[in-house]
Design goal:
Layout lengths: L1 H15 L1 H21 L4 E10 L3 H4 L9 H5 L2 H5 L2 H10 L9 H13 L1 E6 L4 E8 L2 H58 L1 H5 L2 H32 L4 H19 L5 H18 L12 H74 L5 E6 L12 H26 L6 H7 L13 H33 L4 H10 L1
Antiparallel strand pairs: 1-3, 1-4, 2-3
Length: 488
């Protein structure tokens, strides 16, 4: 009953204020129709690009580096909407005829960027580029120019990257080759200067040094024995004893010093002086030798033993030098060989990479890698995508009805007058009498005719709105047809 009461209440409101309701509803509907025609038209053009992958990509896998479709599509939105491409398109389409300032040009670029839309279908490798503008011709030309510029710049960038990679790899390979050559030259120098130390076996050398030391001791012992025998064969002669002492001292000095050492020179001079002194003696004053032949034999053997002892000392000194130089030379050689192997591996890897880059460059130059192919170029749009007049008019009709009813409900809400006996009873006021409404047939007839005129006028006006709506839904705008007729 409550719902039925409310329903009747709303109908009663409309009936009592039918003129206001009709006027309000029709004004709102008319405003919606006018707005739908005043809003600027926006046209959209779109182009579809297919990202194709050449069959050579599979054949040269491992030989050349080619990007996958997924890698190609990454960052595509920022690339297409980049300032570089948009600026080139503006110049190509002469959209900057007025030579705008930098600030105005930035605003134009931002506007074009905002109206450019990009849709990616990675599964099928499709790129859809769309653009909206008031001018359908500019819309079409802009999309085609953006797609064309993008494909050209993408190919140019890939070629520049390939050439840059080859140049970089060549420079790195040359630098590594130079280091490799220097290391190999250093290895040759070490092998040449320390060849004996490097070729010697430490164990065998140690055994050789021990044997040489033992041989030296044997020679030293034999020398001592021969010197004692020689002294016994000679008579006691202080000058000869002094010469022998000086010669022994000279031998000891020669072990550690050269013949130019001052002490060695002085000792030689003393020996020569002593020998001259003996030679100046009278013939009868010289020492008598008990057995001259035996003494000569002992002297000869002693000289041989001393010579062998000197040679053995020199050999031991050389062996000890090689023994001490062996660990350092070998460690240095091993270090240089490790560096050489490292540089050689890096150089071989660089040369392999350079070969891959060369093949990749040739594929880029000959357009044999992942390429962009325009499957659907942008065409001249015929119908605008905005405004959607049918939708706006439908919303206007619904809004007009709702607005008219809302206005009546607002008036009724703020109207505090008593409209029925029930309202008085609700206020606790007792009605004394109810004066009935006097019905005048003439007034009723007059009101009926007035309502009929209202219904006819409102219905005719509403039918015009519906007709415009129907024509718009069929794609035949009456306003545009009227404008074309006038222009003709």
């Amino acid at each position: 009953m409550e719902n039925e009461f409310d329903y009747k209440k709303y109908l009663s409101l409309i009936n009592n204020h039918k003129r206001l309701f009709a006027f309000t509803a029709l004004v709102i509907m008319t405003a919606a129709v006018v707005v739908s025609y005043l809003l600027p038209k926006k046209y959209e053009a779109r182009s579809t690009v297919f990202v194709s992958r050449n069959v050579l990509n599979d054949l040269v896998r491992g030989i050349a580096v080619t990007p996958t479709v997924e890698d190609t599509l990454k960052g595509l939105d920022s690339t297409i909407k980049s300032r570089k491409i948009i600026t080139k398109v503006i110049d190509e389409l002469d959209l900057n005829l007025k030579k705008q300032s930098d600030a105005t040009l930035d605003g134009t670029i931002q506007s074009l960027r905002a109206r450019t839309n990009l849709q990616l279908n990675e599964k099928e490798g499709l790129i859809t580029i769309s653009f909206t503008d008031k001018n359908p011709r500019i819309t079409r030309d802009y999309v085609n120019a953006v797609v064309r510029r993008f494909i050209e710049d993408n190919l140019s960038v890939k070629r520049e990257e390939s050439y840059g990679a080859i140049s970089f790899l060549s420079e790195q390979a040359a630098s590594i080759k130079e280091k490799l050559d220097k290391t190999e030259a250093e290895i040759s120098r070490v092998q040449s200067s320390s060849g004996a130390a490097l070729s010697a076996d430490p164990g065998a050398m140690h055994a050789e040094i021990n044997a040489g030391q033992q041989r030296l001791e044997e020679l030293s012992l034999r020398r001592s024995q021969l010197e004692a025998t020689r002294n016994q064969l000679r008579r006691v002669d202080p000058s000869r004893d002094r010469i022998n002492a000086l010669q022994k001292k000279l031998e000891e000095l020669r072990v550690e010093y050269t013949d130019n050492y001052p002490e060695v020179v002085k000792t030689k001079a003393d020996i020569e002086a002593a020998q001259k002194e003996i030679s100046k003696r009278p013939a009868g004053a010289s020492a008598v030798i008990h057995d001259s032949q035996e003494l000569e034999r002992v002297e000869a053997e002693l000289r041989a033993v001393r010579s062998g002892e000197e040679n053995q000392r020199a050999h031991l000194s050389n062996s000890r030098g090689l023994m001490h130089a062996n660990p350092g030379a070998r460690a240095e050689l091993e270090k240089l060989e490790r560096e050489r192997n490292s540089y050689r591996g890096m150089y071989d890897q660089m040369m392999a990479r350079q070969g891959q880059a060369e093949v990749s460059k040739q594929m880029e130059v000959q357009d044999k890698t992942t390429t962009f192919r325009i499957t659907e170029p942008a065409t001249l749009p015929v119908a605008p995508i905005s405004p959607n007049r049918v939708r706006i008019m439908l919303m206007g009709i619904a809004g007009g009805l709702a607005g008219g009813l809302g206005l009546l409900m607002g008036i009724d809400y703020f109207d505090k007058s008593v409209k029925s006996v029930a309202a008085l009873k609700a206020l606790g006021i007792q009605a004394v009498a109810v004066i009935p409404k006097i019905i005048d047939p003439l007034e009723i007839e007059k009101e009926r005719r007035s309502d009929l005129k209202l219904y006819m006028a409102a219905g005719l006006y509403f039918s015009m709105i519906v007709t415009v709506l129907a024509l718009e839904s069929l794609g035949r705008s009456p306003v545009e047809m009227f404008i074309r007729m006038i222009n003709q």
